[in-house]
Amino acid sequence: MKTETVDGSTLETWSADEVAKALEANEIVLIDVRTPQEYMFEHIPGALLMPMAFFDAAKLPTQDGKRIVFHCGSGARSEKVARNAISAGMDPIAHLDGGFGAWKAAGKAHMGTDMGTGAPKSVPAKS
Q: What keywords appear on the UniProt entry (predicted)?
């Protein structure tokens, strides 16, 4: 994990492996800040959706017992949202380095779309 101090608060940048391990252990709340269309096409199971366009830090859950980790497609939007959360007083806050693209590149399990039928399909982790 990489860390950066932003206005006296800690911004953490987590790898796909770190996020997967913490999500499996139920230690984090993973929040997807992509659009609803992106989320419906493919997403990380268990991730909550809070699109960046509608982001309101005041509506975030507390971090009592669980860290909040944001993710998007590439890491750019999630970093911006994480910085907004820090400005709203959340500390520490984290985001997924490389976003969903890094998650898939790391071979992590996710929900996708069957292009033949349009139905959701589980994409297993690659060994």
A: Transferase
Nearest to residue 71, comparing CAs of 24, 25, 116, 23?
Answer: 23
Higher pLDDT pick, 65 / 114: 114
Joined tokens for residue 33? 């800040």
Looking at residue 32, which CATH number applies to its domain?
A: 3.40.250.10
Q: Which residues are catalytically annotated?
A: 72
pTM for this one? 0.93
Indicate the residue type of 54. Answer: F
3-state secondary structure the chain: CEEEEECCEEEEEECHHHHHHHHHCCCEEEEECCCHHHHHHCECCCCEECCHHHCCHHHCCCCCCCEEEEECCCCHHHHHHHHHHHHCCCCCEEEECCHHHHHHHCCCCEEEECCCCCCEEEECCCC
Q: 64 or 110: which carries more pLDDT confidence? A: 110
Judge contact between 63 and 46, C-beta under 8 A.
Answer: no
Residue 10, amino acid: T
Q: Taking a C-beta distance cutoff of 8 angstroms, is the pair 84, 57 a contact?
A: yes
Domain extent at residue 101: 2-121
